[in-house]
Amino acid sequence: MDGAGNGGRIRKMVFVTVGTTCFDALVKAADSRQVKEALSKRGYTDLMIQMGRGSYVPSKVSEEDEPLTVDYFAFSPSIADYLKSASLIISHAGSGSIFETLQLGKSLIVVVNEDLMDNHQSELAEELAERKHLFYARPQMLQQTIETMDLETLVPYVPGSPKPVVDLINKFLGFPAD
Fold it and tell me: Strands across the sheet with 13-17, in order?
């Protein structure tokens, strides 16, 4: 989605994903006029929302007077192409979505679902935000996060090597060291 679009204008897509869950608070926040205007001011042109099991249906917009072109879908067999083509990803705090996005080297805002009872997801998001791999927000703070984020401060995520764990397991099982 990045590239020349209508009239040679550079297209910059924001992809919002809630995974397979219901996270209407994130979908509503992303679909709000204030968030769309904040994204538009940052140079984004397109907003694609994966809404999951939610009941809130975002507005499909492609009019000239709107800040962004907006489209949505509930589910897809794979969201990999959306992740690859997006300039910015706004995601629920599922570890799979977080690490898939970080491994692609994409800018990421993680929005925590406050309605979950045991919210271990917020701990992961907070830790990765502290390490400057992503931005962390709650649905009601999404607009402010977009307005104040400095993408230049993000640090690329480098996955750890599994070798120390493999060596430890091999030693425990009595296999010779490499």
Answer: 69-73, 46-50, 13-17, 88-91, 107-111, 135-137
With beta carbons less than 8 A apart as the criterion, state whether 125 and 134 touch.
yes
- Cα separation, 142 vs 28, in Å, equals 11
Rounded CA separation 170/178 (Å): 10
Q: Can you list the alpha helix ranges (DSSP code H) found in the chain?
A: 24-31, 33-41, 80-85, 95-103, 120-130, 142-148, 163-173
* Among 178, 148, 156, 152, residue whose Cα is nearest residue 166: 178
- Kindly state the greatest CA–CA separation across the chain: 68
* φ, ψ for residue 80, nearest 5 deg: -55, -45
If you write DSSP's letter for every residue of 36-58 in order, what string do you get?
Answer: HHHHHHTT--EEEEE-TT-S--P
- pLDDT tens for the chain, 178 residues long, are 455 555 556 889 999 999 998 999 999 999 999 999 999 999 999 999 999 999 999 998 776 767 799 999 999 999 999 999 999 999 999 999 999 999 999 999 999 998 875 677 888 899 999 999 999 999 999 999 999 999 999 999 988 877 777 787 888 788 887 6
